[in-house]
Amino acid sequence: MPSKAPDTPVIKNIAVNGTALVLQTNKNDPDALKWYVRAKGLKNIGQVDKALKLDYKPHISQEKQVIALAEPIVEEWKRRNARDQPARAATMAKLWADYFKEAKSLTLANEALVERGQERKWPVEQGRGYWTKALLVERETHWNAYLKPFFQDKERYRGKPATDITYQDIKAWRLWRDELAPDLAPSTLNKQNSTLRHLFKLAVRQGENFAPPVIEDEKPNLQKRTRSRITDEQMLDVEKYLEGRYRGAFEQGKVDKHTYYPFLLRHYLDLLKFTGIRPWNGKKNAVKMEHIVPLPDKGNAAFLIKRIDEKAHEPYSAIASRRFVKTYDSVNRFYEYFGLGKDREYFFCHPVTLSKIIQKGAPIQSFKKQWQTMTEHFKTTTWKDGASFEDLTFYSYRHSFITNKLVNNKDISIWDLSKSTGTSIRMIEQIYGHYLAEERFEDLNAVDYDYVDTCSIFSESGLEIGEVSTNGKAHWQHWKETPHLVAFPPLGDEK
């Protein structure tokens, strides 16, 4: 707090609840005297001081200048006092502390609801979705790694009110961030931008009357995103790995929860592979049985998958590959063993109760843990093109679906393909290449996986344990001995 320098004048012309002074003090250097305004008696603020941009000049009357500078400051104090606000606007550090406290409280409330088998109800204020542990950790990481080192640790911004942050400050922060982490993906940068926006939004909700600075999002490097396409070689290796986990266990009589989820992941990947739909991470977008619509007039292998466009929020229907019929049949047979037939709510759900949170019949919100286990398995594997499994995500299957349609079905209209995959024409053109066609395509499955070349064989527990050649000797033998464990009967006459 500044103190009055000896033998210097005190101006008392500003009244705030009876007590206010404009005074000249020596803060650190007795020879560098400065003018301050001090207000006392504000019930919600107490005493507050602020330096004026005016140096003390002895033997010169500065009273009018001092008062002119001090009056608007005092008036602002009075307005903030009336609104029960502190004298100064919060710094970025204070905003973060308030934001995190609120977010943590809402996250705990949501998690308590989930533990009781209820849906989350507390949303992100002026944002999208609901508070989760994962989102809370993500926001905290953004602050600690990319916001705090700049807006709190740098001396220039340490005590600066958030309301004084300008567009130029934001540009300076972005330049600093680019030097710190030049390889961050645009989507990651934009998540950090979103966290920063939420801090400014909180300031507005707290009563600050200001226009937050514009924070422009990074443009996605769309061409770069094609690198995540999974190759046929990688797909085959993934399928062999997962099948090894559950088929081997079956042979050893060890079918349990450790085999359920590799089996389900194997078929979840098939769903992505044969439909091109977006992977989901939560209950909201999980595929339900009612979303899978058979088309009897198109044959026994025709399905549509009803989805919602994430950006346009409009419904669309994904056209499933004919090969999806085997996935559909395998998954349903698996769940029948657990008493979960086609009348279950979700296509992929927990077959048994594992905890208070994981209940039988509840949707599998994510296969993330299974994917992480698989990533660890393939971490030392290098494929012919030098690709690493760590570069892949669930979206890699969607990218492969769209790319294969464009490459193999050259008569496909990009418009029709965009409608069946819930993405924009621009996105397809920029990510997947330019495949313009003059004629309207008749069948998205013109070049497709042959869905009748093999037939799946199942165990009594509903697990797919192998495949045999359609119409082959083994197919006929299984059909004669255990027809209920065969996906479909032989076609034609026995040879």
Summary?
This protein has 14 helices and 9 strands.
Explained architecture:
This protein has helices spanning 63-82, 92-115, 133-151, 155-158, 167-180, 186-205, 232-251, 257-275, 324-337, 368-377, 395-408, 414-421, 425-432, 473-481; strands at residues 10-11, 20-26, 33-42, 46-55, 292-294, 303-308, 315-319, 454-458, 464-469. The protein is built from 14 helices and nine strands. It is elongated and about 120 Å long. It is 41% helix and 11% strand. Helix 2 (92-115) packs antiparallel against helix 3 and helix 2 (92-115) packs across helix 6 (186-205). The chain is of the alpha+beta class and 495 residues long. Strand 1 and strand 2 form a beta hairpin. It folds into three domains: 10-82; 92-220, no CATH class; 232-451, hpI Integrase, Chain A (Orthogonal Bundle). The strands form three sheets. Strands 1-2-3-4 form a four-stranded antiparallel sheet, with helices on one face. It has a three-stranded antiparallel sheet with strand order 5-6-7.
- Estimated share of beta-strand residues: 5-15%
What general outline do the C-alpha atoms trace? elongated
Q: What structural category arises from helix and sheet content?
A: alpha+beta
Mean pLDDT: 79
Outline the biggest β-sheet. 4 strands, antiparallel
End-to-end span in angstroms? 100 Å
User: Regarding CATH, which class of the largest domain?
Assistant: Mainly Alpha
- Strand order of the biggest β-sheet: 1-2-3-4
Q: How large is the radius of gyration?
A: 32 Å
Strand tally is 9
CATH architecture of the largest domain: Orthogonal Bundle
Q: How many helix segments?
A: 14
